[in-house]
Design a protein that fits this description.
Distance between the termini: 25 Å
Structural class: mainly alpha
Number of domains: 1
Helix content: 40-55%
Largest sheet: 2 strands, antiparallel
Mean pLDDT: 85
Low-confidence stretches: 123-130
Oligomer: single chain
GO molecular function, one term: DNA binding
InterPro entries: Integrase_recombinase_N
Shape: globular
Number of strands: 2
Keywords: DNA-binding
Amino acid sequence: MFRTVKAISPSTGAVTWLLVDEETYIAHPESLEYSIHLRAKNRSPQTQRNYPPRVGRFLNWCSGRGADWKTVSLGEMARYKFHIEQTPDPRTHRLPTGKTVNAVVGTRVRVSALVRGHRQRGSRGRVRTQ
């Protein structure tokens, strides 16, 4: 299972939101890459904070189903969307709006596109993390 944590650079004070394994606290590699991508694109702090939990929700859903998030079928994505539509927000106990559902599902698509693009370009296009 994954959870979102706030990482603060000791040298610059810059904040990065990371998706980490709950047991090992190792950052999920593709999610880390996406977080760095958001910072490099100067996305708002709110955007940078909101995306990792959405990615984590999808990864946790896939894990619970025994599915590989990188190769989910269109049918599995439809089931995930249905799951999001039918799961109340834990804070408000309300079902999500259509806009929220689209944002959650859309985040997964953007992360996959970024990862796919980096793989096609090879290491030249990869964001360095060190």
